[in-house]
Amino acid sequence: MHSGNGVRQGGILSPFLFGIYIDELSSQLQSKHIGCRLSNIIVNHLLFADDAVIFAPSAKGLQQLLDICSEFAATHNVVFNVKKSQCIIVPLKIM
Question: How would you classify residue 10: left for phi > 0, otherwise alpha for psi between -120 and 50, otherwise beta?
Answer without folding.
Answer: left
